[in-house]
Amino acid sequence: MSADVTLENIWIRFDDFTAVKNADITIKGGEFFSFLGPSGCGKTTLLRAISGFQELSEGKVYIGGKDMAGIGPNKRPTALIFQNLALFPLMTVWENITFSLEVKGVGKAKRLKRADELLELVALPGQADKMVNELSGGQRQRVAVARALAAEPEVLLLDEPLSALDLKLRQHLRTELREIQKRAGITFIYITHDQGEALTMSDRIAVMREGTIEQVGNGNMIYDHPETAFVASFVGENNAFHGTVSKISAGKTIVKTDAGELEATLTEGSRLSTGDKAIVFARPESMSFVNRKNSVKNVFKAKVVYQEFEGHFWHLILSGPNDKKLKMSVINSGSSHDYDEGTELQVNVNSKLAVALPSGPLAAE
Amino acid sequence: MNSASILKFFISFYIVLFFAYLFGPLIVMSITAFNSAGFPRLSPWDCFSTEWFGVLVNDARMMAGFKNSLIIGISVVLVSVPIGLAGALLLAQLSNRVRQVYYTLTISTILVPGVVLGISTLIFWDRMGMMFDVDYESFFYDGIFLTIIGQSTFISAYTMLVFMSRLQRFDPVLEEAAMDLGATNVQTFRKILLPFLKPAIGSAAVLAFLASFENYNTTVFTIVSESTLTTVLASKVRYGINPSISALAVIIITLTLCGAFVHEILKRREQAKELALKKEEKTVSVKSASRGLLSNPVPMMVLLIFVAGLTTAWMARGYDVQQCKIEVSEEKRKHQAELSKIRRVEMEKKLEAQKTDTASPSTVTTKKAAPGTNQYGNIFAPTNLEGQVESEETNPVTKKNTENQYQNIFAPTNLEGQIKSENE
Amino acid sequence: MILWFKKFFLRNGIVLSLYMLLMTFTWIVVMFVLPQVFMFDFSFRFNWTQIDPSKIGGPEDVYTLQHYKFLLFGSPNNPDPFNVVDVTVFGRTILAAVFVTLFDVILCYPVAYYLAQVAKGGITRLMMLSLIIPFWINELLRAFAFRILFGEEGTINNVLLYLGILDQPIDYVRENIALYAGLGYAYILLMIFPIYNAVESLDRNQIEAARDLGSPWWRIHWRVVIPFAKPGITSGCTMVFMLSAGALALPQIIGGPSSLWFTQIIYQWFNTGSNWPRGSAYAMSLLVICVIFVLLIMKVFKVKFGEIGR
Ligand SMILES: Nc1ncnc2c1ncn2[C@@H]1O[C@H](COP(=O)(O)OP(=O)(O)OP(=O)(O)O)[C@@H](O)[C@H]1O
Ligand SMILES: [Mg+2]
Fold first, then answer.
1. What is the mean pLDDT of residues B133-155?
2. B44 and B123 Cβ atoms separated by less than 8 Å
3. How many Cα atoms are found within 13 Å in the side-chain-facing hemisphere of B406?
4. Which one of A8, A12, B276, B299 has the lowest number of neighbouring Cβ atoms within 10 Å?
């Protein structure tokens, strides 16, 4: 069973601070939906609003089409996996997992059986009688998932459940979570500030900044067609060239920047017009070196400051016009390239991949 | 460096003195419980005896007071633990400004003199009784009820402080997790918060009981016509004292030590548990536990006390109180005779001195101390094994007789002390 | 306010909300505040002997200041300008309480500091426990112990006589030495723990830094440790002052015959004097003066009430 979740013009204020501003989206049943944003942008607050712990200042939450106003967290068809997991330290693993059944008055034998099933599901067989503190971080993680699933929620809410784990385990659990979601067939609402996590797991992602949802879309859309300067700078690596729009034509624009006139694509429905302040975003992999001078548009001079080899890519730090720091990635084609520090090169920006967006705040480095 | 070590020496010296001040009075009092003399004192030492414990147990007023103290203590626990818990829980949910006022009010219950609390409770219920026109048999005028209420007023603040410090370490997210899993408020409270608070409930209960048990200032007003152990003690102590009170002190000190021991063990166990919760590696907790055992001085202390107790008991077996008393009185009589002899000699000397102009009163003081050392030898004098049983079986009449006899024998010196003490 | 209650009930559910509110209401209002109010009211009433019981609560049951007047000026035919006995006792009680408080600060500060900063691990625990144990023992028994020690035939006199330091026994009780020693003893714990808590949270590095800068040890205490521990010291002083001013058992048992404690006078009005309203007036006066005194001290040392008892 899965339910869709609709957030309707939600505002959440604390005294004089607004944590969530006008959140308005619908999450489809059975979807793996992620909220992505930097620390403190209001993700947890929004999640707590969905699960019923956080009162709304304005707006409505619907789960499965039902208005949740006045319904307490213990009555909502949601289960929350907390940022710090919040496993009950004084209970054993199986008692933790079947807590939701215990409070419903389910008998012990039944609960034990259910615990075994769920432990099987999260790949932790035979650990039922351990105390929680006797488990490793990854095992605890799974117990938390099992505990939430035992409540048979229609929507599972996960608040950065992997953030405390090391990289290897994180990557492993990502795929596992995704699989559990498919098997359980319920809606997952996942919170993270790790874009890699969001991109790999989610059907759709909402990017948040300071309480506002800036863009909603699948990973591909968010990465390739960011709609705001913040999204462009927050998701993946990006080089930003600030300037003013000098010319607009169908789907294209030319922006006058430090690095000369740069041509870039416009997003759909872009409201940029000539004379506006704009930023051209070019991803490291959308730039390349050219040999001839003055040959193509979108070319400028840069010097190699630092190089880093990462298998299938060379990562370079360049110093561009006005000493602007740029990042660039070049595919390792096998021939031994040598980008010695201090070498001067001509850099070309692919105008099809570069996007021009209205000027706005960027994500902190 | 040198001055630092001198400083260190002084500090250690100071600490030793401080603890001597702390324990000296208790130790001295405990020892006097075993002196057969009719007045609690260390010296002169008469005989080692446990008779004062018997006197204590046979004291009907003391026992009645003790019973009331127990009833009140338990009731105070039952009242003040739930109140303190509610108080601490509420405090955590108040907004900052209200919390200040609330906290001030609750702490005031501790700071307001106990006398004032007692009086106000007494008056309040008296007036209420008048308002509702209840008769004097009702609980509005019942000393035990009033005392329970009066004591709980400030003891609840104690328990609240205990709960507050425990709640500070509670992760409220656990409550949310339980609610999220479908638990009701009450279920969350019962299954998550209460188990977490269990050790604090224990400590709060012990604290409340002890505070109630030893309270005097409030009780003396609220108890009206009843009595508790402390009020009985107070009236006893004010009108002449005897070592049966020391015997009571010995019992309470022993119980306290045992209590401290149990408390310490429980606390350690809980700490180890919490440590284990924090650290994932089991080795850490195991290591610290073994270290804890080695460096734990409390069990050693209790063991020492236990051994000391056994030794005394063993020595007491081979020792007859009655015999000792007779010996002591014998000794005293001799001493008396000696003293009068000395006096006589002195008089003669004085007479002589009047002639020769030389006097030496210092000899008297040195002689006076001498019998004390002799008596010590007598305490451990080996005698028959049946002594203990016999002394317990001696009927009260003969006992009284011996006591009288005993007082008569060294009337001149001892009576003086007795009178003085009663005048105080 | 109503909003707060709504939120509160929503958050805790009806059962728990009612439990919390009713319990604390009973405690704070019914058990604590109302009785104080009633006592205050009662202190302005006539005594039973002065009014016909049937008229209590009637129009003739008016308020009177006579009990407070009595405390200040004594009975109408008192030749002195004020009530010499009671006012002196009052003043002496406050002074003595101040003295006991100072004695305890000086006595306890080094120990608290030692426990918090110098002693290590097991020793600290043992010392803490040994600090607490004496205070689990009945206050009256402690008073009794001091009586054994300080009696004219008491242990101290005997020891001093034996050592030849004294040639006459001293009457410690008459000299009030026993009382001060006993009161100081009784509240050691209340002084040590707040100071200990404050000093313990002081970062050792601050002390080291001061030592590095060449401060002598007394200056380190004066400039670094004591200012830091000020809330703890004030908190301890407040408690010791209030409790010693309000002590009853110790003055009754080891107080000298010449020096009454003010609480003893209150006790007499309730017991032998059988004048409850007057006793209430006296108790009220004691409470008010003590509170004013404490608030003054807090103002002087700039410590907030909220810091007490933690
Ligand atoms: N109860 C509260 N009272 C006041 N401000 C709050 C409260 N809860 C959260 N905030 C504020 O709201 C903002 C958003 O907090 P939130 O916990 O939602 O961040 P987050 O996006 O989950 O961050 P993180 O990734 O660090 O967990 C923060 O600035 C926080 O300070
Ligand atoms: Mg968060």
1. 82
2. no
3. 19
4. B299
Contact residues, chain A to chain B, C-beta under 8 Å: 51, 53, 72-75, 78-80, 82, 84, 86-90, 99-100, 102-104, 133-134, 136-137, 147-148, 150-151
Q: What beta strand segments (E) does chain A contain?
A: 5-14, 17-27, 32-36, 58-63, 66-67, 78-81, 155-159, 187-192, 204-209, 212-217, 239-249, 252-257, 260-266, 277-282, 287-290, 299-310, 313-319, 325-331, 344-349, 355-358
Tokens (6 digits) for B156: 């609840």
Mutate to test the pocket of ligand 1, among A11, A16, A17 (most ligand atoms within 8 A of CB): A17
If pLDDT is split at 50, 70 and 90, which confidence band does B374 have? Answer: very low
Nearest to B85 by CA among B163, B200, B157: B163
Nearest CA among A150, A148, A93, A155 for reference residue A125: A93
Architecture of domain C81-308: Orthogonal Bundle (1.10)
**Please, what is the average pLDDT of chain B?**
71
Which residue, B19, B39, B136, B158, is CA-closest to B88? Answer: B158
* C162 and C82 Cβ atoms separated by less than 8 Å: no
Chain B hits for C293, Cβ within 8 Å: none
pLDDT at B407 over 50: no
Q: Can you tell me which residue has the tokens 């609690």? A: B40
pLDDT of amino acid B414: 34
Minimum distance, in Å, between the CA of residue B20 and any CA atom of chain C = 11
Rounded to the nearest 5 degrees, what angle is found at the Cα of B301, between the Cα atoms of B298 and B307?
A: 140
Q: Is the separation of the CB atoms in B145 and B223 below 8 Å?
A: no
Structure tokens at C44: 């302005």
CATH 3.40.50.1580 fits B50-240, yes or no: no
Name the burial class of residue A349, with classes exposed (0-12), middle (13-18) and buried (19+) by CB atoms within 10 angstroms of its CB. Answer: buried
| pLDDT per position as a tens digit, C127-169 | 887 888 777 777 788 888 887 777 766 677 677 777 767 667 6
Query: Model pTM?
Result: 0.77
Instruction: Pick C153's closest partner by Cβ from B41, B161, B259.
Output: B41
User: Who contacts B28 (Cβ-Cβ below 8 Å, separation ≥6)?
Assistant: B42, C145, C148, C149, C155
Length of chain B: 424
Q: What is the pLDDT of residue C95?
A: 86
Instruction: Answer yes or no: is the C-beta of A34 below 6 A from any ligand 1 atom.
Output: no
- Residue C229's contacts (CB-CB under 8 Å, 6 or more residues apart) are C112, C195, C198, C199, C202
CA dihedral for C270, C275, C276, C278, sign (positive or negative) = negative
Is residue A140 within 8 Å of A105, Cβ to Cβ? no
